[in-house]
Write a structure and sequence with these properties.
Layout lengths: L1 H13 L3 H22 L18 H5 L7 H7 L2 H21 L1 H11 L4 H12 L6 H11 L6 H8 L9 H4 L1 H17 L1 H8 L3 H9 L4 H12 L1 H13 L6 H7 L9 H10 L8 H29 L6
Helix pairs in contact: 4-18, 5-11, 6-11, 6-12, 8-16, 15-18, 17-18
Length: 315
Amino acid sequence: MEAKNTVKKRKKFKRFSKSEAAVFIMAFLGVVFLALFAYVPMAGILLAFKDGDYLYGFWDAMSTDWVGFKHFARFLTDMDFKAVFFNTVGLNVLSLLVNFPFPILIAVLLGEVRSRRLKRGLQSVIYLPHFLSWVVFGSIILALLNTNNGLINMILKEMGLLERSINFQRDHFWGLIIFTTLIKGAGWGSIIYLAAITTIDPQLYEAAELDGAGRFRQIFCITLPAIAPTITTFFLLNISGLLGDSIEQLLVFQDGTITNELFDSYLLHQAFGGFDGSPHYSYATALGLFRSVIAVLLLSLSNFFSKTFAGRGLF
């Protein structure tokens, strides 16, 4: 009996091929990475409820006394934080309205290009900015917009449209952030929509063409409805990130004034610089936890309304 059971166990073990075993190992490594760098650091959330400011050591901060919601009350009554909060929400809402449709538009237009060579060339051009770091890409933009010898200011002056140079970082910070985000990310963001478009059955377009539908009618009646679930998914994810920004982008384009301070840069400055040059780990942790809770609430609410009115959602 024992020999039979051993044979059965061996047979069950042999059901997994080498390729399947490799997949399991890769998946296991991903789980380990996620656990170490996503779940284990969650223990640091406790800092939001402890008096760990002004201490440089993590364990020293964790061993301090409990202070409850002191840090939350502190930033909710801080006028600088209110300015940062409304700056972040206003900029991200405007950015969502302007930047979200562009990857969809690019994907639809690329899907209408018949020449493979032209299509690949256009894709290479619009994908290129994504592969440049924000430091390199931002340096190019800032050089073009420089108030002293920037090409854009020089052209506008020569055309008689300006009497003096514009400081885009200070006077048009929101427009600068939205424009650079659009240029750098719209092409790369269109990839997922292009992939969704390629899954549409070509016979639908052929049938629509036989019925007399033009290209625009086919786009609105076939292409957009077919990729609507993908659009919904990414729209909901974007809504949940209304308090999040690219910290690299902010560090490149900010000029250090509170008028263009956003949530992520404010959190970073408070964590390592604080109000007086000392670290404020507990205060910064409270800020981060506040943002995470708001993100979960936004995602849940937007998913609820999406399922109620559009019949689809993330979960």
